[in-house]
Amino acid sequence: MNLLIIRLIIFAVLFWAGLKLYRMYREWKLEHGADQPRHLDDARMVRCSQCRVHLPEDEALRQGDRWFCSHEHRDKFLEQQRPPED
Ligand SMILES: [Zn+2]
After folding, report:
1. Where is the chain membrane-spanning (predicted)?
2. Least buried of 31, 42, 54, 85, by fewest C-beta within 10 Å?
3. Distance of alpha carbon 73 from its chain centroid, rounded?
């Protein structure tokens, strides 16, 4: 019975230590990882369907599965796609 209690205590201490280490690691990572320029790595380039210029995805406008550099080009492209009325 004593052995079981000792095992439980050891397990609890190990668990607590692991949790504390994990939290310390997370804090360290937040402090040291936050100011790195992740933006450039993450930015995916897309192409405007109208003028074929390349731009980062977060600056582009999405319409269905197409991308556009501006509202003007999106509207222009959609106008061209539309079947002519008479
Ligand atoms: Zn464009």
Report:
1. 6-22
2. 85
3. 26
